[in-house]
Amino acid sequence: MWRNPAEDFTKVGVKYFSRHKGEVNCCVFSHDCQILLTCSDDGRLHLWNARSGQLLAKVSGHKGPVKSCVFSADSVLFASASHDCSVRIWHTATAKCLRVLAGHTRSVETVSFSPDSKWLITGGWDKDAILWDVQSGDVVRVLSGHKDAVQSSMFSLDSQFVATGSWDYTVKVWSLTSEEREKTLEGHRGNVSCVCFSISGMLASGSWDGTVHVWVPKQGASLFVLRGHRGWVRTVAFSRSGLVLASAAENDTVRIWDMSTGKCVKSLQAHEDSALGCTFAPSGALLTTGSADLLEQPEPWEKDPIQ
């Protein structure tokens, strides 16, 4: 975890959360920055006290690796997407599963709540993105058009648009409030692995080609192409202000970019292995990253099958 109270990127402090038994694929903060949620190839999700590092709960139920996780805006709920083709909605306070969403026919790679927590967007290897009603668990809309797996998704902060990134090298921006045809953003030369909207409406996308593209999605225009990562980009995340972007890449450091210039202002090296995920806390003062290093080995009595 990286602390940056003044967003000056000069002081680095690291705290490790190392209890998973597989690669950590995603990590997110609750809205009050008190809880850190992580998910892993070990089929589990963990809830942590973000300040003390205490493990609050081990959450199980998926039958395969958990690829993505996300809190609702008020953090009352969290959702998870898994290789087992399902999406689960959980109650944060009790860590109990409230609903299992079945609609994808192959591994689900991404899940995101809308800012008002009414909808979920999911995507996966079946090439579709699905819009769900959180309260009922019903499918609202199937977004079809990608030619390969959907690996990433994100709502705009006004809930009017959804962005999806695909292995077909494109990003699509879908309107949820009109019949306007989706915009297809082209420029990457590899699978699009992550997307993220800023508060100002910019859209960032990271790719297996090692680049990050920053778009003005309503115009379909590219603002910056950020180069410098040595491996494929796993995660992109805007700070609360939208003035800073973080990106994490395979076999590389976490990089911090100035969105006024498109320049890299800091490289963070804290993991022994690849940084697989990164996210800013809602306060803007913390950045957390997940990796495959420092995996805890199971004790003899813990070698149970994934539940």
UniProtKB/TrEMBL annotation:
<keyword id="KW-0677">Repeat</keyword>
<dbReference type="InterPro" id="IPR019775">
    <property type="entry name" value="WD40_repeat_CS"/>
</dbReference>
<protein>
    <recommendedName>
        <fullName>WD repeat domain 38</fullName>
    </recommendedName>
</protein>
<dbReference type="InterPro" id="IPR015943">
    <property type="entry name" value="WD40/YVTN_repeat-like_dom_sf"/>
</dbReference>
<feature type="repeat" description="WD">
    <location>
        <begin position="226"/>
        <end position="267"/>
    </location>
</feature>
<keyword id="KW-0853">WD repeat</keyword>
<dbReference type="GO" id="GO:1990234">
    <property type="term" value="C:transferase complex"/>
</dbReference>
<feature type="repeat" description="WD">
    <location>
        <begin position="17"/>
        <end position="58"/>
    </location>
</feature>
<feature type="repeat" description="WD">
    <location>
        <begin position="143"/>
        <end position="184"/>
    </location>
</feature>
<dbReference type="InterPro" id="IPR036322">
    <property type="entry name" value="WD40_repeat_dom_sf"/>
</dbReference>
<dbReference type="InterPro" id="IPR001680">
    <property type="entry name" value="WD40_rpt"/>
</dbReference>
<feature type="repeat" description="WD">
    <location>
        <begin position="185"/>
        <end position="215"/>
    </location>
</feature>
<dbReference type="Pfam" id="PF00400">
    <property type="entry name" value="WD40"/>
</dbReference>
<feature type="repeat" description="WD">
    <location>
        <begin position="101"/>
        <end position="142"/>
    </location>
</feature>
<dbReference type="InterPro" id="IPR020472">
    <property type="entry name" value="WD40_PAC1"/>
</dbReference>
<feature type="repeat" description="WD">
    <location>
        <begin position="59"/>
        <end position="100"/>
    </location>
</feature>
